[in-house]
Amino acid sequence: MKILVMDDEELAIKRLVRLLDELKYDYKVANNKEEFDSLDKEHNFDIYILDINMPDISGLELAQEIFALNAQAFVIFQTAYEEHALKAFEIGAIDYLLKPFTKEDLQKSINRAISYKKEEKSTKFLTKNGDEAYLLKPEDIVYIQADLNEVIFRTKEGFSYYAKKISDMENLLKSSNFFRIHRSYIINLDYVKSMKTQEQSKIEFFFTNIKDSITSSKDGAKKFREFIEK
To answer: Which residue from 132, 135, 205, 207 has the highest number of Cβ atoms inside 10 Å of its Cβ?
Structure first.
């Protein structure tokens, strides 16, 4: 497992490097966002160990960038603050280490990533609707609707919100059977029951298990037809 570490605190990096050396892991260190981007382009990392409070970019924001480009990545946060833990797990972090943590704590976090890697990490989303929270898998989602800087997930049970842009979701789900038919909608093709051509060659999609229907944009319909004909 190849690891990329980013932290702006010199002492924190030195301590983490010492632990990684003792555990004999292959790693690289970035002190800022510019170094991070350069290393990330050059290497194929499996695990990212990030601080949360950094001047260049928040570790939470950086994790979202990582997952948008690679849904199979593993992120471990190391921080002195407990209050970001829920947000970290909502984003998709595999662990949240509070400083100062031990070598054993670090090994457990890395072992968790190794275990998930062997099982092929399954994508899951922690969504909310009011005070209710839901842990959804891609196959639970019928369609996704853009809502400013969030998206709305539609399942057969109802609606819930997830704190990502629809363009991020398109990247996260590109290996699954989802298709963006409109700037505001991504549909799960496994749930499509029937289709109907509308004006300007747009397509109206109907789904199993729900009564909703969604009409594509003209461009979305064109791309969908090209996709089906491949």
So the answer is: 205
